[in-house]
Amino acid sequence: MKQYVFTILLTAAVTFVLSWAVWRLSLKYKLYPGIRERDVHKTPTPRLGGIAMFLGVVAAFAVSSQHPFFAIVWSQPHEIYALLGATGLIVLVGVFDDLWDLDWTIKLGAQFLAAGVIAWFGKLQIYTLPLGGMTIFSSWASFALTVLSIVVVMNAVNFIDGLDGLVAGVCLIANAVFFAYSYMVFRDTGASNYFNLASFIAAVLIGACIGFLPLNWSPARLFMGDAGALMLGLLMACSAISITGNFDPAMMGDNDEFGRSQLLGAFIPILLPVVVVLLPLLDFGLAVVRRMSRGKSPFSPDRKHLHHRMLDMGHSDRDAVLIFYAWTALVSLSVLLMYIGTTLEWPGDYLIGVAYGVVGVAACLVVTFLPSRRPPQPAEAAVAAPSPEPSTENVR
């Protein structure tokens, strides 16, 4: 575990230092776009934080290549090189978009290309579905499912990039839960070395988010932009695929030892990677349906995302972000507690996770639908000049 802690601290330190440097250089050379009609922030703010996060990730992988604890993953270096190459490509395209607003078709094409590099050259694919060990017999079906999954998660994470600290905090919580899950899965298989690529990627992303948040917290001085959001989504998808796409519940041994709920034991490996990004996926799905029903491109920007609706309800931007944090922690921890309950055979088995979820949902619903400040009435908004809001991310 101490090797993972070192990875988190190293990535956080490198990301923080580089984020500060990127922020200062962006201000000095005015490397930031002007305010667009669809933007909700009031002051031009640099959006190149994704560069610092990417370099922090690269630094962590570089150091791991020299550490014997992580030698097992470097025994197949093509997987890592494909992963880093695809990440570098998506960060490069994201930087161009952050500076010059690329057409959505170019960005989507780059996303499919990056996902294809990972699936084809890195051989990181979904080969099995953890539903009774179902195997995907067609190599092309495996390739297509992998590419589609990566692209969907990338866009889902990118779509919620709308408030200061929102994406970084949500991804921090999601990866922390997924790290605990992936670490425990390998522990429960009886492996002598708990290292696995899924846990390592999650640890790296935890560090990147921790290092970036100080400059991204409201009022933000630096945005991660498309480069950072797409990178987080890509790596989170790869982390989930590296363990879920090759997971067979039978490897946990006798089901009586693994847990008393065979059905839950089969579903959790595929359920938890989904629920940790449940809010981004929900927002992404609603946005696609909303835009296509109006005859628009699913990637045309609007101001109807979940976080924008919470602002319209009367929440401040910080309150909205904290509520998103609470929902993310609720859904992900609930499933993690179910997994722990089945493996350790707690009293009540997975009911502890269910109880936590029920109580948490009730609490989250209260804070979500009881805003801390009254939303302005139309008449008041027409008379009074709007007060400046803290800077927020650009609308997706």
TrEMBL record:
Pfam families: Glycos_transf_4. It is found in: Cell membrane. GO terms for molecular function: transferase activity. The chain crosses the membrane at residues 6-27, 48-74, 80-100, 136-154, 166-185, 197-215, 227-247, 267-289, 320-344, 350-370. Its main location: membrane. Keywords: Cell membrane, Membrane, Transferase, Transmembrane, Transmembrane helix. It is a multi-pass membrane protein. Residues 374-396 are annotated as: Disordered. This is Undecaprenyl/decaprenyl-phosphate alpha-N-acetylglucosaminyl 1-phosphate transferase.
